[in-house]
Protein backbone atom coordinates (compact mmCIF):
# COMPACT_ATOMS: atom_id res chain seq x y z
CA UNK A 1 0.00 0.00 0.00
CA UNK A 2 1.06 3.59 -0.49
CA UNK A 3 1.87 6.01 2.34
CA UNK A 4 0.38 9.45 1.88
CA UNK A 5 1.39 12.29 4.17
CA UNK A 6 -0.97 15.10 5.11
CA UNK A 7 0.84 18.36 5.81
CA UNK A 8 -0.24 19.00 9.40
CA UNK A 9 0.83 22.57 10.11
CA UNK A 10 -2.63 24.14 9.87
CA UNK A 11 -5.98 23.36 8.25
CA UNK A 12 -8.35 20.41 8.06
CA UNK A 13 -5.81 17.61 8.43
CA UNK A 14 -7.97 14.95 10.10
CA UNK A 15 -10.61 14.98 7.36
CA UNK A 16 -7.96 14.24 4.73
CA UNK A 17 -6.43 11.47 6.86
CA UNK A 18 -9.86 9.81 7.15
CA UNK A 19 -10.64 10.17 3.44
CA UNK A 20 -7.24 8.71 2.45
CA UNK A 21 -7.56 5.76 4.84
CA UNK A 22 -11.04 4.99 3.58
CA UNK A 23 -9.67 4.56 0.05
CA UNK A 24 -6.96 2.18 1.24
CA UNK A 25 -3.92 4.42 1.63
CA UNK A 26 -1.81 4.59 4.76
CA UNK A 27 -2.13 8.24 5.87
CA UNK A 28 0.26 10.02 8.23
CA UNK A 29 0.44 13.62 9.43
CA UNK A 30 3.64 15.42 8.36
CA UNK A 31 5.18 18.11 10.54
CA UNK A 32 8.89 17.30 10.31
CA UNK A 33 11.32 16.45 7.60
CA UNK A 34 11.83 12.95 8.98
CA UNK A 35 8.09 12.36 8.51
CA UNK A 36 8.20 13.81 5.01
CA UNK A 37 11.02 11.39 4.21
CA UNK A 38 8.73 8.39 4.89
CA UNK A 39 5.85 9.33 2.55
CA UNK A 40 5.21 8.48 -1.11
CA UNK A 41 2.98 11.51 -1.63
CA UNK A 42 1.66 14.58 0.16
CA UNK A 43 -1.75 16.21 0.64
CA UNK A 44 -1.79 19.92 1.42
CA UNK A 45 -5.10 20.67 3.14
CA UNK A 46 -7.38 23.65 3.10
CA UNK A 47 -6.84 26.32 5.69
CA UNK A 48 -5.04 29.60 5.18
CA UNK A 49 -2.33 29.63 2.53
CA UNK A 50 -0.48 32.59 4.04
CA UNK A 51 -0.28 30.82 7.42
CA UNK A 52 0.75 27.48 5.91
CA UNK A 53 3.43 29.30 3.89
CA UNK A 54 4.84 30.91 7.05
CA UNK A 55 4.68 27.67 9.04
CA UNK A 56 6.39 25.71 6.23
CA UNK A 57 9.32 28.06 6.60
CA UNK A 58 9.21 28.09 10.44
CA UNK A 59 9.25 24.26 10.49
CA UNK A 60 12.04 24.19 7.89
CA UNK A 61 9.85 22.21 5.54
CA UNK A 62 9.49 24.70 2.68
CA UNK A 63 12.75 23.68 0.94
CA UNK A 64 12.41 19.93 1.62
CA UNK A 65 8.81 19.78 0.30
CA UNK A 66 9.79 21.80 -2.77
CA UNK A 67 12.68 19.42 -3.39
CA UNK A 68 10.39 16.36 -3.17
CA UNK A 69 7.96 18.03 -5.60
CA UNK A 70 10.80 18.70 -8.04
CA UNK A 71 11.78 15.02 -7.73
CA UNK A 72 8.27 14.03 -8.84
CA UNK A 73 6.47 13.33 -5.55
CA UNK A 74 2.69 13.25 -6.19
CA UNK A 75 0.77 15.91 -4.31
CA UNK A 76 -2.85 16.94 -3.92
CA UNK A 77 -3.81 20.42 -2.73
CA UNK A 78 -7.34 21.47 -1.80
CA UNK A 79 -8.19 25.17 -1.52
CA UNK A 80 -5.25 26.70 0.41
CA UNK A 81 -3.30 23.63 -0.78
CA UNK A 82 -4.16 24.55 -4.37
CA UNK A 83 -2.65 27.98 -3.81
CA UNK A 84 0.53 26.46 -2.35
CA UNK A 85 1.01 24.13 -5.34
CA UNK A 86 0.39 26.87 -7.92
CA UNK A 87 3.34 28.47 -9.69
CA UNK A 88 1.71 31.92 -9.51
CA UNK A 89 -0.77 33.57 -7.14
CA UNK A 90 -2.88 36.73 -7.52
CA UNK A 91 -4.36 38.47 -4.50
CA UNK A 92 -1.74 37.09 -2.13
CA UNK A 93 -0.34 39.07 0.78
CA UNK A 94 3.00 40.89 0.64
CA UNK A 95 5.81 38.33 0.60
CA UNK A 96 3.53 35.31 0.17
CA UNK A 97 5.34 32.43 -1.50
CA UNK A 98 4.10 29.22 -3.01
CA UNK A 99 5.86 25.88 -3.30
CA UNK A 100 4.79 25.75 -6.93
CA UNK A 101 4.76 22.74 -9.22
CA UNK A 102 1.58 23.27 -11.25
CA UNK A 103 1.82 25.69 -14.15
CA UNK A 104 -1.24 27.74 -13.22
CA UNK A 105 -2.07 31.18 -11.93
CA UNK A 106 -4.59 31.08 -9.08
CA UNK A 107 -6.57 33.96 -7.64
CA UNK A 108 -6.97 33.88 -3.87
CA UNK A 109 -10.43 34.50 -2.34
CA UNK A 110 -11.61 34.75 -5.92
CA UNK A 111 -15.35 34.18 -5.76
CA UNK A 112 -16.15 37.54 -4.17
CA UNK A 113 -18.43 38.55 -1.37
CA UNK A 114 -21.79 37.17 -2.47
CA UNK A 115 -20.49 33.71 -3.21
CA UNK A 116 -17.62 33.61 -0.74
CA UNK A 117 -18.75 30.19 0.42
CA UNK A 118 -21.07 28.08 -1.70
CA UNK A 119 -21.77 24.55 -2.84
CA UNK A 120 -22.40 23.25 -6.34
CA UNK A 121 -22.28 19.95 -8.21
CA UNK A 122 -19.32 19.50 -10.53
CA UNK A 123 -18.50 17.26 -13.43
CA UNK A 124 -14.87 16.17 -12.97
CA UNK A 125 -12.90 14.51 -15.79
CA UNK A 126 -11.93 11.00 -14.67
CA UNK A 127 -14.74 10.67 -12.11
CA UNK A 128 -18.16 9.20 -13.00
CA UNK A 129 -21.19 11.22 -11.94
CA UNK A 130 -21.40 14.61 -10.26
CA UNK A 131 -19.18 15.52 -7.31
CA UNK A 132 -20.59 17.91 -4.73
CA UNK A 133 -18.14 20.81 -4.43
CA UNK A 134 -17.91 22.76 -1.16
CA UNK A 135 -16.14 26.10 -1.64
CA UNK A 136 -14.95 28.11 1.37
CA UNK A 137 -13.25 31.42 0.54
CA UNK A 138 -11.80 29.48 -2.32
CA UNK A 139 -9.31 30.35 -5.05
CA UNK A 140 -10.01 29.74 -8.72
CA UNK A 141 -7.53 29.05 -11.50
CA UNK A 142 -7.20 32.08 -13.71
CA UNK A 143 -4.62 30.84 -16.21
CA UNK A 144 -3.49 27.35 -17.15
CA UNK A 145 -0.11 26.71 -18.75
CA UNK A 146 0.34 24.14 -21.53
CA UNK A 147 1.53 21.35 -19.20
CA UNK A 148 -1.58 21.46 -17.01
CA UNK A 149 -5.01 19.93 -17.75
CA UNK A 150 -8.33 21.39 -16.63
CA UNK A 151 -10.48 18.72 -14.91
CA UNK A 152 -13.48 20.80 -13.82
CA UNK A 153 -15.21 24.14 -14.18
CA UNK A 154 -18.11 25.68 -12.28
CA UNK A 155 -21.19 24.94 -14.38
CA UNK A 156 -23.69 27.63 -13.46
CA UNK A 157 -24.26 30.77 -11.42
CA UNK A 158 -22.11 33.90 -11.22
CA UNK A 159 -18.85 31.93 -11.39
CA UNK A 160 -19.86 29.73 -14.34
CA UNK A 161 -16.86 28.71 -16.42
CA UNK A 162 -14.30 29.23 -13.67
CA UNK A 163 -11.66 26.50 -13.43
CA UNK A 164 -11.73 24.65 -10.11
CA UNK A 165 -9.76 21.43 -10.65
CA UNK A 166 -6.48 20.91 -12.53
CA UNK A 167 -3.99 18.09 -12.94
CA UNK A 168 -0.39 18.19 -14.10
CA UNK A 169 1.29 14.77 -14.06
CA UNK A 170 1.32 13.59 -10.43
CA UNK A 171 -0.02 16.91 -9.11
CA UNK A 172 -3.73 17.49 -8.50
CA UNK A 173 -5.43 20.62 -7.17
CA UNK A 174 -9.04 21.52 -6.38
CA UNK A 175 -10.57 24.81 -5.26
CA UNK A 176 -13.13 22.88 -3.22
CA UNK A 177 -13.00 20.58 -0.20
CA UNK A 178 -13.93 16.96 -1.04
CA UNK A 179 -12.67 15.91 2.41
CA UNK A 180 -15.71 17.45 4.11
CA UNK A 181 -18.46 15.71 2.11
CA UNK A 182 -17.88 12.02 2.82
CA UNK A 183 -17.47 11.44 -0.95
CA UNK A 184 -14.01 9.94 -1.34
CA UNK A 185 -13.80 9.81 -5.15
CA UNK A 186 -11.32 12.71 -5.45
CA UNK A 187 -9.05 11.05 -2.86
CA UNK A 188 -9.51 7.77 -4.75
CA UNK A 189 -8.39 9.49 -7.96
CA UNK A 190 -5.35 10.92 -6.17
CA UNK A 191 -4.38 7.59 -4.60
CA UNK A 192 -4.61 5.99 -8.07
CA UNK A 193 -2.23 8.69 -9.35
CA UNK A 194 0.11 7.89 -6.41
CA UNK A 195 0.00 4.14 -7.14
CA UNK A 196 0.68 4.71 -10.85
CA UNK A 197 3.57 7.04 -10.02
CA UNK A 198 5.38 5.02 -7.35
CA UNK A 199 4.88 1.54 -8.84
N1 LIG B 1 -8.78 31.80 1.56
C1 LIG B 1 -7.82 30.80 1.97
C2 LIG B 1 -6.42 31.13 1.52
O1 LIG B 1 -6.21 32.10 0.84
C3 LIG B 1 -8.19 29.43 1.48
C4 LIG B 1 -9.47 28.98 2.14
C5 LIG B 1 -9.56 27.49 2.33
O2 LIG B 1 -8.58 26.75 2.26
N2 LIG B 1 -10.74 27.07 2.67
O3 LIG B 1 -5.53 30.41 1.84
UniProtKB/TrEMBL annotation:
One of its GO terms (biological process) is pyridoxal phosphate biosynthetic process. Its EC number is 4.3.3.6, 3.5.1.2. The keyword Plastid does not apply. This is Pyridoxal 5'-phosphate synthase subunit PdxT. The lineage of its organism: Bacteria, Bacillati, Actinomycetota, Actinomycetes, Micrococcales. L-glutamine binds at residues 47-49, 108, 136-137. Keywords: Glutamine amidotransferase, Hydrolase, Lyase, Pyridoxal phosphate. Belongs to the glutaminase PdxT/SNO family. The keyword Hydrolase applies. CDD domains: GATase1_PB. Catalyzes the hydrolysis of glutamine to glutamate and ammonia as part of the biosynthesis of pyridoxal 5'-phosphate. The resulting ammonia molecule is channeled to the active site of PdxS. In the presence of PdxS, forms a dodecamer of heterodimers. Only shows activity in the heterodimer. It catalyses: aldehydo-D-ribose 5-phosphate + D-glyceraldehyde 3-phosphate + L-glutamine = pyridoxal 5'-phosphate + L-glutamate + phosphate + 3 H2O + H(+); L-glutamine + H2O = L-glutamate + NH4(+). It holds the Pfam family SNO. GO terms for cellular component: cytosol; glutaminase complex. The active site is at 79 (nucleophile), 177 (charge relay system), 179 (charge relay system). GO terms for molecular function: glutaminase activity; pyridoxal 5'-phosphate synthase (glutamine hydrolysing) activity. Pathway: Cofactor biosynthesis; pyridoxal 5'-phosphate biosynthesis. PANTHER family: PYRIDOXAL 5'-PHOSPHATE SYNTHASE SUBUNIT SNO (PTHR31559), PYRIDOXAL 5'-PHOSPHATE SYNTHASE SUBUNIT SNO1-RELATED (PTHR31559:SF0).
